[in-house]
Amino acid sequence: MAPSTHVQLGDSFKVPLKLHQLNRERLCQRLKEKNVAAKSVVLLQGGEAANQYCSDRELLFRQESFFQWAFGVAEPDCFAAIQVDTGKAVLFVPKLPDAYAIWMGKLEEPSFFRDKYAVDECYYVTEMEEVLSKMAPSVLLTLNGKNTDSGSTCKEATFPGITKYKVDNKTLHPEIVECRVFKTDFELELLRYTHKISSEAHKAVAAALKTAKHEFELESIFQDYTYRKGGMRLLAYTGICAGGGNSSILHYGHAGAPNSAELKRDGLFLIDMGGEYHCYASDITTTVPVSGKFSEQQKKIYNAVLEANRNVFNAVKPGVNWVDMHKLAERTILTHLRTHGLVKGDIEEMMAVNLCAVFMPHGLGHFLGIDVHDVGGYPEGTERIDQPGLKSLRTVRDLQPRMCITIEPGCYFNDVVIDEALANPAKAKFLVAEEINKFRGMGGVRIEDCITVTETGAENFVDVPRTVEEIEQLMASG
Known about the structure:
By secondary structure, the chain is of the alpha+beta class. It contains 15 helices and 19 strands.
C-alpha cells in the first residue's frame, strides 16, 4: 500500500501529511540547536477517548493539540516517538479486541496506520516498551508545561516502565510551543481554508437575519454551512450568537445562556463563530443590524470599532509590539467616543487611567492555530500587565512573520462595567453619563479578523463585508 500524501474529507480541503512531517523536522532542528543529548527521543501521548460522566455515552473525540500538530492522527489513545538525531517517527496505536469490529468496523493492522499517517514505523501501544528499549534513548523528552491562556498543564506522556529511562520534562515544552507560534506554508494554507469557509458562513448568517426569530436559528445556519460546505464537523469554540444587550456579554452562548433569546428587530446582532478543520481553527466576529439597516446611534459605535480594527491592521508589521497595537485601538475608540460626546477631556489622560477598558474590557486579540487561543503568548521572560484591559491581553510579544493573530477591537455598553466606572472618581470625570445612558441596552460591537504577519505587513484571512454600506447591501440582497 502506497503511503498517503493527504488527509481529505469528501470534496473539502486536502491536507498534505507533509505538514506534520515538516513540523517534526522543525522541532528536531530546534532541539538540536538547544544541544540536547545525542540519541534523545521525544515521547508524546495523544488524547484519550472518554465517556460522559458515569454513562456509556462516548464523547466525540478531538485529538490533543500537540499530538495533532506533530502527527495529525485522528484516533484516540495513541503514543508517538521521534528520534531527534534522525527525525525518525514511530507511532503506537491501541490494540482493540476483535469484538470491537462489530461496533467500530474493520480493525486495521499497524501497517495501515503507518501508511495512513506517513510515519516510519507503527506498532501497538502494548509493544511500546519493547520498541523504546531497542531505540535505546539517552533521554526521553516529555511534554510538561503550562498553557498561558488556560492556566492548565499539558498532558505528559507516561507508561508502565518509564522509570527505567532518564526523563527530561523541561526542555521540550518551550521549544514545541515556539514551533507552533510560527506557521509553515502548509499551515497558512490550511488556515486560509478554514477562514474562507467560515467567512462564507458569516455571510449566510447575515443574509438570513431578516427572517430569523431567535439567536439559535443563526447559530444553526453557521454550523450547517461550515459542515455541509467545508467538511467541518467541529467548531473551533463555543459559538456566540448575541442579539441586542446580549452582545455586551463577552462569552455569551455558554450553557446558561445558550443563544436562545428572541431577536429584536431594531437591535444589533453579534456573531462570533469559527469552524475547525483538521483541528486548525478559524475565528471571526461580525456585528450587523437585525433589521438590515444601522441606526445612526449604531453607526457611531460600529464605525469607531471598524476604524480601530483597520488602524491596527495597517500598523502591523514585523517588530511591532502587541501592547502598542492594543493601545492604538483604545485611542481610536476613545477619540470616536469623545467626538460623539460620550467622553470628555484629554485622550492621553484617559489612557493613563485605562478608561477604554470601560468600553473594551478584553484584549485586542490572540494567537490562532491548532487551538483558537493558540500557545506561545507569554514565553519565559514576559509577563502580564496588571492593568484594566491590558491584563486581558493574551500576548505582549513583538510581532514576527508567520505569527497568526486576531485583531478584534470592541466597544460595549455593559451596565455592570459602566456603573463601576461612574462610581470611580478617577474615571467618572471623563464620562458623560447622560450621553452614555442613551446607549445602554444597545449591547456592543466587535469586529474580528485573523491575520498572519508577513515580511512587510499582514495578510487578512477573513473576507466578509465590513463597512456599513457593504453590510446593508448584503442583507438587502438576501
